[in-house]
Amino acid sequence: MAECKNYMSMDTVYTYCDHGTDKQRVYMSESHGVINQKDKKPVLNANDYKYPENIKGYGYCKAQKAHSVLRRHRHKHGKYATPTTVCRPILEQAWQDCDPHYTIEGAPVVLDTSCLVCSRGGIIRFVKEGSEESKMQDASKDEYSAFRGINDALDKFDKAVAEHLPECMKDLKDVHLTLGNRENGLYANLYINAVDADYSVTEFKPKERDLTHENAIQSKTGAEVGFTHGDMNISAGGEVEAGKTKSGDISNPESPDAKVFVKGKVKDAEAEASIHADRKKEVNAQYGNFKITGEKDKDGKYSGAVSVSDKHD
């Protein structure tokens, strides 16, 4: 290797994100077969950019598109939660500014000047010795890192569900049959979504003081009539939900549910009122990933919840 270039290796030099709070090393699940003679560690190539296999996260995220969760707190009366943003990077491109003259397994080798672009808005670079970034806390020691284990389990759940879905359901992932102008005007819409997924739903129920973090996957079929003008939409219709599973319990789906609803939406803000087949009445308001829900069950009991989710349509 050329003396004038610093090739990067697994688990050696820290990296940081300009929208993060912590520093983190880059990892590999399997060596490419080339060892750096300086540190005796496997050399990184441009394809070692994936989350969470290679990049584990950088603490809390300050980007506008940050992934939000509810942070658990405890006090003498129980537990509660407040919204916070943790680093869950979206990395869609390989390492940039690598060495084009030296490749391993067809990909250029990563240099200390290489960088990664996160779609949430951050830039990931290697920490320079003696810089301000070198004083950052190690992300693996940060309390937020408990969420990594949860998200790893959720990712396994997603893959398990996908493996058990019939091919015909995969083809019906999101089908819409629309009459009229759904973009700007009156319309009628029939939709079938065989795999409607809410990824990493963090939900807090104040009444029960209960905080959960899980996935929800279900099949939905419905019909609605509505009107759209610019960023505003109002609609009414009915929907049937079946096969809902949470947190990997594929063998024990929830009972089917049917409802009639009225909802309105302006840009990222949405509100809905619905009556369900079991006589439950529900009202929810959502802005971006945040959702507040209030409901009255068939026995007249009231409850509510606050949730945050990474929604995959």
List the SSEs and their pairings.
Blueprint: E1 14-17, E2 22-25, E3 35-36, E4 41-42, E5 67-75, E6 78-86, E7 99-104, E8 107-109, E9 115-117, E10 123-126, E11 137-138, H1 146-164, H2 167-171, E12 175-180, E13 185-205, E14 210-229, E15 232-246, E16 257-266, E17 269-276, E18 281-287, E19 290-296, E20 302-312
Parallel strand pairs: 2-11
Antiparallel strand pairs: 1-2, 1-10, 3-4, 5-6, 7-8, 9-10, 12-13, 13-14, 13-20, 14-15, 15-16, 16-17, 17-18, 18-19, 19-20
Can you characterise this structure?
InterPro entries: DUF4280 (IPR025460). Residues 290-313 are annotated as: Disordered. It comes from Selenomonas ruminantium. This protein has 313 residues and is mainly beta. It has two domains: 14-141, no CATH class; 167-312. The protein is built from two helices and 20 strands. The chain has helices at 146-164, 167-171, and strands spanning 14-17, 22-25, 35-36, 41-42, 67-75, 78-86, 99-104, 107-109, 115-117, 123-126, 137-138, 175-180, 185-205, 210-229, 232-246, 257-266, 269-276, 281-287, 290-296, 302-312. An eight-stranded antiparallel β-barrel has the order 13-14-15-16-17-18-19-20. Strands 9-10-1-2-11 form a five-stranded mixed β-sheet, with no helix packed on it. Strand 5 and strand 6 (78-86) form a beta hairpin. The two termini are 46 Å apart. Residues 73-81 have low confidence and may be disordered.
